[in-house]
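Go through this one:
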Amino acid sequence: WEFIEKELPLASKVPNWALLALSVVLSLAISYIVVRWIVRWRRRHLILPGMTKTPLTRFANDSRLEFRYAQDPQELAALAKTENYGAAGTTNLDQATEWWLKFRKGNVLAIYGGNIIGGVDLWPITKAAFEKFENGEINELDLEAKDIIRDTSHCHYWYVGSISLDMVFRTPRTRAELLVRLLISAIDHWKTNATLYPAHLVAEAWTKEGRQLLVRHLGFEFISPKNKPALNSRLYKRTIKSQAELRSLKKQLMSVVNHTGP
């Protein structure tokens, strides 16, 4: 304060309590800026922090981790309780069950120790429904069972629904590894159903994490529909032109977890 009083004579007339209050306010402001920066940094790296030189291998040989299709509505209810990354995720259980009854291979589950901890939804849809998504005429809540195709041997269009993971796994690296392994499994399951190329995929994102996941790690591009979606979501699209392109996407994800496979 001696320096301030010397350089700024008026400062000597300011009560000590006011200077103390000012210093506290400045300290809080700086702390707030630092915390906000840390939060933003963590969010940017929360999804796939393993995109570094250090592979994610905690679950590499863990027999308690498995991936398979949902088998009944009870499993759909358990999946609905997991945290969603904001790549869609607005369906209710009745709606999800109707979709599942139409296409039993639409939900790929992540199961750990017998408990459902997450999942990815991939639904074969009609060309008309896909175009309505593109134009912003419908969103996930508007998608009906009649828009979903049971026989995928003639399907070129897909809707990417929820991507979710249970919050019981809280550390970024643990969640990242589980999420990457879930996406790898979803690709493996999907390629047995998506036999026609090019395969056109559309997805909605409701959160920043969901947008990052779609764009930065799954290669989707933002599309601006003719009509603004009724709900506050953003639309994304990707076209998989061949199985080779799908294998390339899987290879990128495999490199994160040091995963080996065909």
The CA atoms of residues 221 and 236 lie 5 Å apart. Residues 16-46 form the longest helix (31 residues). Helices lie at 2-7, 16-46, 73-80, 93-102, 127-134, 172-193, 208-218, 243-257.
